[in-house]
Amino acid sequence: MGRSPCCSKVGLRRGPWSTKEDTLLSNYIQQNGEGQWRSLPKNAGLLRCGKSCRLRWMNYLRPGIKRGNISQDEEDLIVRLHGLLGNRWSLIAGRLPGRTDNEIKNYWNTHLLKKLQSAGIQPKSHKDLPKPNKNNNNNKKKTATNIGPKKKKKLKKVAGRADKLDEARNDENENGEQSNNNERPPKTKVYLPKPIRVSSVFSRTNSYDSLVSRTSSSDGDAAEKVAEVVSYVPVAWPPLFEMEEGGYGGDEDDFLGVGCILPLLHHPLDSISGDVNMLDQVYDEYLQLL
DNA sequence: AATAGCGACAACCGCCGCTCG
DNA sequence: ACGAGCGGCGGTTGTCGCTAT
Questions:
Q1: Bias category Basic and acidic residues: which stretches (predicted)?
Q2: Does the C-beta of A138 come within 7 A of strand C?
Q3: Protein residue nearest nucleotide B15, by CA to C1'
Q4: Residues A249, A259: contact at Cβ < 8 Å?
Q5: Model's pTM, two decimal places?
Q6: A208-217 and A72-85 are packed helices; what angle lies between their axes, rounded to 10 degrees?
Q7: Which of A28, A48, A250, A272 is least surrounded, with the fewest CB atoms within 10 Å of its CB?
Q8: In CATH, what class is A19-61?
């Protein structure tokens, strides 16, 4: 059965937020706290969908949000985490204080993807890792349509760069089109680790850029180099406690310094410290959980 | 100067899992 | 057990601004 939309979209504003709307939203949340997103717009005097309010708050208005200027360290970490986790942006964002999943996702799509590809890296190196069911079901999601964004954009521009006025936006009618894809794979329960924010910055000596530069600097056996770079996919999990005690990051043989990104399994950690075989087991166990 | 091409990123959409009645 | 509501997530699209032609 189809679910009702999160809110009636009739008469609601869409598109970019004005400063006035931002102020209204910020003030309301500061006074009343987050949550109750569905009723928030009405209470705050906003003509916005609750989801839109939440997104705006989470990605831009929330205190502590860092905007732009993604550092080399952060970029490095994003690449590593993506190699581990795939497109689980919220998890990746959880390891980057002040960064939002949306920003990381955009940054990946616009910067890092090209960077990796230009370096001859197929960034899908994590494809062998088991993905959560949600991702495995991506087929049911609106996958790339026959007309890609660029083509659409081109078509749109060919048709003329019509200015999109707010009035037009307001007049927009949602047709409520929904794709009824009834052929869903059976659901399976999966373990989805929750992101854990940490404030410490990991030291990573084996930087992604150095890998890339190594790869692109010479014209030797390309496949070999790709394999070499792609090997940033981890092979073992380090004990979390090392990271949490601020001592993490010294070992170049850890899985490239990602460390601690995943919730720890309940293991007698003291006994596995330094034991690569045991770490492999931990990793295997984690993969099974996934 | 006008327009096409393109990049960047903000915002939207649809789906899912969790919670609660 | 079931269904609805809610929050959250990831993929995709829309919009804007800059550059090239």
A1: 160-172
A2: yes
A3: A141
A4: yes
A5: 0.57
A6: 80
A7: A250
A8: mainly alpha
Tell me, what's the pLDDT at A11? 72
Flag residues 135-154 of A with CB < 7 Å from strand B: 137, 140-142, 150, 153-154
Encoded amino acid at A104, one letter: I
pLDDT of residue A188: 32
Nearest nucleotide to A149 (CA to C1') is C13
Q: What are the residue boundaries of the structural domains of chain A, listed by start?
A: 19-61, 72-126+194-289
Residue nearest to nucleotide C4 (CA to C1'): A3
* Helix runs in chain A, H state only: 19-32, 40-44, 50-56, 72-85, 89-94, 101-107, 113-118, 133-136, 149-158, 166-171, 208-217, 222-230, 240-244, 269-272, 276-289
Structure confidence at residue A121 as a pLDDT band (50, 70, 90): low
Contacts of A53 (CB under 8 A, 6+ apart): A25, A37, A40, A41, A44, A46
Q: Is the model more confident about A167 or about A90?
A: A90
**Spatial distance between the Cα atoms of A121 and A115, rounded to a whole number of angstroms:** 9
